[in-house]
Write a structure and sequence with these properties.
It is a single chain. Helices cover 23% and strands 41% of the residues. It is built from 3 helices and 7 strands; from the N terminus they run αββββββααβ. The protein is globular and about 35 Å long. A 6-stranded antiparallel barrel has the order 1-2-3-6-5-4. A hairpin with a 3-residue loop joins β5 and β6. The termini are far apart. The chain has a single domain, classed as Beta Barrel (Thrombin, subunit H). By secondary structure, it is α+β, with helices and mostly antiparallel strands.
C-alpha cells in the first residue's frame, strides 16, 4: 500500500469531483459509471464491472447544463482497478474535448491559479485531430 504522502507527490494535476456519468468502451465491453475524480491527465470512475488493467479504452463523458449536451470523448488506458472502480490515464483526445475538459477542471477547482499554471505545462497526451488526419 502506498502512503498518502507518496500518493499526493505522484499527482501532477489538480483533481476535481464532478459526479458526471461516464461510459467506457474497451473491445466489446461497455461499462457505465460515475466520475469520482477528474483531472487534465485522467479520471477515476466508480463502476462495476471494470475493464482490466492495461487495456486501451474510449471514455465518454456527457456535459449537461448547456442547451445541447456536449460529449467529451477521450482515449485512455486503464492504469489500475480496485473494489470501487478504475483509474484511466488519458492518452489522446481531440482539441474540442481538451477545451471542455480544461473548463470543467478549472470551474470545479478550488485553486484556479494552480490549474492555470498546470495548463501552461504541455499535456501528457497527443491532441487528436477530429478529422482523423
Amino acid at each position: 500500500m502506498v502512503d498518502d504522502g507518496a500518493q499526493k507527490e505522484r499527482r501532477e494535476r489538480t483533481r476535481v469531483r464532478t459526479g458526471l456519468d461516464a461510459r467506457v468502451q474497451s473491445g466489446g465491453l461497455v461499462v457505465r459509471g460515475r466520475v469520482r475524480d477528474l483531472s487534465l491527465k485522467g479520471v477515476y470512475l466508480l463502476c462495476r464491472p471494470r475493464v482490466h488493467e492495461g487495456a486501451d479504452c474510449r471514455v465518454t463523458l456527457v456535459l449537461t447544463g448547456a442547451d445541447t449536451p456536449v460529449p467529451l470523448e477521450v482515449d485512455g488506458r486503464v492504469v489500475y482497478t480496485d473494489d470501487g472502480g478504475m483509474a484511466i490515464e488519458f492518452t489522446e483526445m481531440p482539441a474540442d474535448s481538451l477545451y471542455h475538459l480544461r473548463n470543467l477542471v478549472l470551474y470545479n477547482s478550488q485553486d484556479t491559479e494552480r490549474v492555470e499554471r498546470e495548463l501552461q505545462q504541455p499535456p501528457i497526451f497527443r491532441r487528436r485531430n477530429p478529422s482523423g488526419i
